[in-house]
Write a structure and sequence with these properties.
Blueprint lengths: L2 H9 L11 H10 L8 E5 L4 H14 L4 E4 L11 E3 L2 E2 L2 H18 L3 H15 L4 E5 L14 E6 L7 H4 L3 H8 L9 E3 L4 H13 L4 E3 H4 L1 E8 L2 E8 L4 E8 L5 H20 L5 H9 L8 E4 L3 E4 L5 H14 L5 E5 L7 H8 L5 E4 L10 H11 L3 E3 L3 H11 L5 E5 L2 H14 L2
Parallel strand pairs: 1-5, 1-6, 2-5, 6-7, 7-8, 13-17, 14-15, 14-17, 15-16
Antiparallel strand pairs: 2-3, 3-4, 9-10, 10-11, 12-13
Length: 429
């Protein structure tokens, strides 16, 4: 089996119509010796901002000389993006070897694509004997394969409405699913979230005797500003002796202030737990060199072209706020592709507040909404639109109709922006 054959085989093992449970992955991990119990994990759940927060934690810890693993999902262009060691993607041959080593056992327990990916991360991080292994939750938390991680600290970024069919239709229910990552006695760092969700999470933390470090009680941000190149702010966390002035971060968008500041708080908590000092210069350097694509990522000029993975109503509202506050342009052309199980009506309504032209598309994901489904909602807005059968043809049309003073934004799904990013990279090698 070569690498392409490996990808084809595991991609075919999607969890569609499969019961969400932990039985398969638990049985698999028991057989291979439970590597998930032998690593020092940082487990991150939440509705939005998980990946950015994980990448910022990775960057800070690596800058302080620690060996760090990072497992995230989904990937944008290359499956290897899901697995990083010290901020670098692992080799194809290493991924293939880890799978082939356990292929028969995966087949025996009929593990899914996500379970296979999580198991590879567990075993990879254990074999590398890393200081810290950062794991991003795929869906929810309570029944997510990553929940089996030996977490030394857990993090919940925020709670919004998303995946309501799987997680529940109220914020407290969604919050309890996310709080499924909590472990008895293990500290929780809680980001800013709505009162109803916060109450549910704090109750669960109390039941499990988890110390809770709340962002809004610990962190103060001053003098924040944003532009097309990043964010700038002062951060004070008195309880941990942190007072940084004029921090510059390479991630773009107002929301990244909260994500990166949360990462600083997480690392501060770890520093107290494990007796190391957060160095000011190293922390500054780390925040300026975070590796994280697809979030207000600029890939072109004249016209300006950005990619943003806003994939739910809260994410789309934040995208609208960022475009209003950061970018100047003659007209805004949105290349839009959304998954069918998302709240399409709300997302289209949000982006229609600022769009001048919408180019409707459909990604290759099996969960992608039909072009006709999006068209039905876009028509209600009265905004001029056109439609194309795939992300690439939609992107090419947007470039064709754009003037040099325009802004093209590709959004609606990580799958959509991933396809465009992959195409762009091939065209610009």
């Amino acid at each position: 089996m070569n690498y392409k054959e490996f990808l084809k085989e595991i991609f075919a093992k999607t969890a569609t119509n499969r019961k969400i449970e932990l039985t398969r992955i638990k049985q698999f991990l028991d057989v291979i010796g439970n590597p998930e119990k032998k690593i020092q994990g940082i487990h991150v759940a939440g509705t939005n901002g998980k990946g950015s927060t994980c990448a910022a934690i990775e960057s800070i810890l690596h800058a302080h000389g620690f060996s760090v693993g990072l497992n995230t999902s989904p990937h944008l262009v290359d499956y290897r993006e899901r697995f990083r060691i010290n901020k670098k993607e692992i080799l194809q041959e290493d991924l293939l070897a880890l799978y082939l080593k356990r292929k028969d056992i995966h087949e025996k327990y009929d593990t899914t694509y996500f379970e296979i990916s999580t198991a590879i991360a567990f075993e990879l991080f254990y074999e590398k004997r890393l200081d810290y292994s950062i794991m991003e939750v795929g869906l929810g938390g309570r029944l997510d394969a990553s929940v089996l991680l030996n977490a030394v600290i857990t993090v919940i970024t925020n709670i919004e409405y998303d995946h309501t069919k799987s997680l529940g239709k109220t914020l407290p229910k969604i919050a309890l699913e996310k709080a499924g990552i909590l472990k008895k006695g293990i500290p929780l760092v809680l980001g800013m979230t709505r009162p109803a969700a916060r109450k549910a999470i704090l109750q669960r933390a109390k039941e499990l005797s988890c110390p809770v470090i709340e962002y809004n009680k610990m962190v103060t941000i001053f003098h924040e500003r944003y532009d097309e190149n990043g964010i700038y702010y002062d951060i004070s966390i008195p309880s941990y002796g942190i007072d940084l002035k004029q921090v510059r971060c390479n991630l773009v968008g107002a929301h990244q202030v909260g994500n990166t500041a949360l990462a600083v708080l997480v690392c501060a908590v770890l520093s107290k737990m494990y007796g190391f000092q957060l160095d000011e210069d190293k922390t500054r350097s780390a925040l300026h060199t975070i590796v994280w694509d697809g979030r207000l990522q600029k890939i072109g000029n004249n016209p300006t072209i950005i990619l943003d993975g806003a994939h739910n109503p809260a994410g789309m509202r934040q995208l609208v706020r960022n475009i209003k506050s950061i970018y100047t342009y003659k007209k805004l052309i949105i290349v839009l592709g959304i998954l069918y199980d998302k709240e399409i009506k709300k997302m289209v309504r949000s982006i229609s507040e600022i769009a001048n032209i919408i180019v409707i598309s459909k990604s290759q994901s099996h969960r992608a909404a039909a072009v006709e489904t999006l068209e039905k909602e876009v028509q209600k807005t009265g905004i001029p639109y056109c439609k194309f059968p795939n992300s690439i043809s939609a992107f090419e049309h947007a470039k064709k109709i754009a003037d040099k003073d325009d802004l093209i934004c590709v959004s609606g799904s990580l799958y959509t922006i991933g396809e465009v990013l992959g195409y762009y990279k091939k065209e610009n090698i």
